[in-house]
Amino acid sequence: MATEAETAAYRPIITSAAYRYNTETRSLADRDTYGRAFLQIMNLWTKDTSVRKFVLARRFARIAAELMGVKGVRLYHDQALFKEAGGGPTPWHQDQHYWPLATDKTITMWMPLTAVSVEMGPMTFASGSNRFGYLGKFPISDDSQARFEQLIQERALTLTYGTAMAAGDATFHAGWMLHAAPENLTAQTREAMTIMDWWSKSRLYISPQSPGMLNWPAGSASTSHPRKSGAPMPGLADASRQLPTFLVQTCGLNQTRRMYVPSQLCLIPPVRWIAICCQKLWERLQATAWRTM
Questions:
Q1: Cβ pair 162, 181 in contact under 8 A
Q2: DSSP codes of every residue in 130-171
Q3: What local confidence, expressed as pLDDT, does residue 281 receive?
Q4: Which residues, 6+ apart, have CB-to-CB distance to 49 below 8 Å?
Q5: Cβ–Cβ < 8 Å for 93, 179
Q6: Bridge-partner residues for 244, per DSSP?
Q7: What does the alpha-carbon distance between residue 207 and residue 186 come to, in Å, rounded to a whole number?
Q8: How far, rounded to the nearest angstrom, does the alpha carbon of residue 230 sit from its chain's CA centroid?
Q9: Which DSSP state fits 100?
Q10: pLDDT cut 90: percent of the chain above it
């Protein structure tokens, strides 16, 4: 997926940004199961111009689109997932549990930034589990591990275990795919970068009945503010492209419009509401990544 030279060039950039924006300061012993599984730093593409070039690489978008059988994909978010030395297992879960998207055409790319041995905790997949779709409200936790472990046994799903991977190798899995990872038994951090894409022709689906996340958190891809592009980097840098688009959410739920208007604007006086709408539209034009072939 990425050459040795490309990975060598981008690894220090990504790891530097990840540790710079990491907010987890507790020891492993003081964290819960989720916290012990990995350090999680999201939306680095909005915070670092060089990381942005990596995340928006058309090469990654093209493969994601081909695997889903679509012509274009839109970036949902990126996240650095660093499983520290001695870090705990990642429980079984579905990524799309967290995504309020009105489509099953979603995909995650998982790429190690260094060579990963079996002892470092590579990914494990429950093959075919994505066909079952939404399996319930089970965020990453001991509960998700117990419930999905039981389901895997009941449905006799085949497990595909991770093998050693070189830096720049990658796995892709569907949003509803059940997956997990064992603990990191080594003294080295397992550094991985992930990129989540969704079909560019789909839309958000935010309502009380949504199986995904009901409220978009601050700093998510829908409200992020990327900086201007910096100096070009080798390899992947010249392959990124960004076009504007609008997201779907109005006051309440209206899935026919293509404009992002936070629901809290419903209570704002009309003049201020219009000003904020104009500001949001301008931000969308500058900030939203529509990744195409």
A1: yes
A2: GGG----S--SSHHHHHHHHHHHHHTTPPEE----B-TT--E
A3: 66
A4: 226, 227, 228, 229, 230
A5: yes
A6: none
A7: 43
A8: 23
A9: -
A10: 66
Per-residue pLDDT tens over the stretch 203-250: 876 544 444 444 433 333 332 222 222 333 344 433 333 332 222 222
Q: Distance between CA atoms of 292 and 38, rounded to whole angstroms?
A: 31
pLDDT band, residue 264 (cuts 50/70/90) = very low
> Which pTM does this prediction carry?
0.74
pLDDT tens profile 41-63: 999 999 999 999 999 999 999 99
Cβ–Cβ under 8 Å, residues 171 and 123: yes
Element (H, E) at 15: helix 4-21
Tell me which of 214 and 22 has the higher pLDDT. 22
d(CA 284, CA 245) in angstroms, rounded, equals 7
What are the two backbone dihedrals, phi and then psi, of residue 139, each rounded to the nearest 5 degrees? -65, 165
Q: Which helix (H) or strand (E) holds 126?
A: strand 124-126
Asked whether the predicted pLDDT for residue 160 surpasses 60, the reply is: yes
The DSSP bridge partners found for residue 57 are 240
Kindly calculate the radius of gyration of the chain based on its CA atoms and give it in whole angstroms.
19
In the chain, how long is the greatest CA-to-CA distance?
59
Q: How far is CA 97 from CA 76, 106, 135, 255, in A?
A: 13, 11, 9, 20
- For 95, the token pair is 């990524």
**Residue 75 amino acid letter:** L
Residue with tokens 């679509």: 70
Q: Is residue 168's pLDDT more than 50?
A: yes
Residue 260 has pLDDT above 60, yes or no: no
